[in-house]
TrEMBL record:
Biased composition, class Acidic residues, residue ranges: 149-159
Record carries keyword Cell wall biogenesis/degradation: no
Skewed-composition ranges (Basic and acidic residues): 180-199
Region (Disordered): 142-207
Protein name: Charged multivesicular body protein-like protein 6
InterPro entries for the chain: Snf7_fam
Organism field: Periconia macrospinosa
UniProt entry tagged with the keyword Transmembrane: no
A cellular component annotation (GO) from this entry: ESCRT III complex
GO biological-process terms attached to the record: late endosome to vacuole transport via multivesicular body sorting pathway; protein transport; vesicle budding from membrane
Family of the protein in this entry: Belongs to the SNF7 family.
Subcellular localization: Endosome membrane
Keywords: Endosome, Membrane, Protein transport, Transport
Amino acid sequence: MGNSNSAHKISAQDKAILDMKNQRDKLHQYQKKITVLTDREKEIAKECLARGDTKKAKLALRRKKYQESLLAKTDAQLAQLEQLTSDVEFALVQKDVLYGLQQGSSVLKEINREMGGIDHVEKLMEENAEAKAYQQEISDMLANKMSNQDEDEVEEELEALERELLPEAPTKPPVLTPQEKAENAKARARRRAEEREAEQASQPMLA
């Protein structure tokens, strides 16, 4: 009886480790592919800024940030699962491991949907009706899936790109006091709220 139980525990643990390795392999494949997309999204952001289209530049950076956060989230989750599966009391954490693997599969599917290809990324630059509908769809999707910290980091990256494109700008960003940083964060939050209100107001006209 004891030997049978022991063999069952090892079998379950081995299966969990195999599933985890499969997720890790998929994640590494996605990391290589998505780097091509995020690099292009950054270039698109620069091109849009150069022609004065800040809205599209920000959308490209938001999508880039979202894709990067999906990969980081899955990577962190797999690292945690590796720790759990190495636990000698595997039976005690088995439910957590199985749940974590299910969650990881779900996020990997979401990443796979984001791997639409470079042609989808190029739609961020286009002006035709189909591209505009796609841009609106991406904007609506990102509105509920990015944290305030993600949005703040997008704003900071946008500002850094703007400085790159302005030769008269100082090479080093100004050093801000904590109060100035807080005021900038509030201003960014206000801008995001205004942008969302504008997007919501325009939706009936798009329909």
